[in-house]
Specification:
The protein has 162 residues and is mainly alpha-helical. It has a domain at 78-162. The protein contains 6 helices and 2 strands, in the order αβαααβαα. It has helices at 7-31, 38-42, 44-65, 73-99, 110-130, 136-161; strands spanning 32-34, 106-108. A two-stranded parallel sheet has the order 1-2. α4 packs across α5. The longest helix has 27 residues, at 73-99. Pfam families: Ammonium_transp. The chain crosses the membrane at residues 12-31, 43-65, 77-94, 106-132, 139-161. It is found in: Membrane. This is Rh blood group, CcEe antigens.
Length: 162
């Protein structure tokens, strides 16, 4: 059975996805570093378990929840995993860039990964409403726009109320 998407989407989507991921890899290489301080490593076990639970809930819970649809079973799981990975990567970079006002290196901590996973989960929830109506290129745009809006809103609210 052939794909129901137009040829233009099937041809440009892999190239666009690879270009976007290559750009994210370059951004991570040049603008991020990991926090390896000793104080954070003491509370790492409890934080790691919370982060692991969030990721399992996002990947398996929301991914396989949409696999019950007859027409979208395996494609919905693949779309959810792709959107989760893209959303987490973009949310880590965006939160790091928005929270630093003299721009420098974005510090990646376990808390920033947990926050990015929660940001990406909001996209997965709203993607369940449009599943079957949009193609993967539109879902990629939805991930970038929604995570950007959520990160900007989070920074505006934290600056107003603090």
């Amino acid at each position: 059975m052939s794909s129901k998407y137009p040829r233009s989407v099937r041809r440009c989507l892999p190239l666009c996805a690879l270009t976007l991921e290559a750009a994210l890899i370059l951004l991570f290489y040049f603008f991020t570093h990991y926090d390896a301080s000793l104080e954070d490593q003491k509370g790492l076990v409890a934080s790691y378990q919370v982060g692991q639970d969030l990721t399992v809930m996002a990947a398996l819970g929301l991914g396989f929840l949409t696999s019950n649809f007859r027409r979208h079973s395996w494609s919905s799981v693949a779309f959810n995993l792709f959107m989760l990975a893209l959303g987490v990567q973009w949310a880590i970079l965006l939160d790091g860039f928005l929270s630093q006002f003299p721009p420098g290196k974005v510090v990646i901590t376990l808390f920033s990964i947990q926050l990015a996973t929660m940001s990406a989960m909001s996209v997965l929830i709203s993607a369940g409403a449009v599943l079957g109506k949009v193609n993967l290129a539109q879902l990629v745009v939805m991930v970038l726009v929604e995570v950007t809006a959520l990160g900007t809103l989070r920074m505006v609210i934290s600056n107003i109320f603090n």
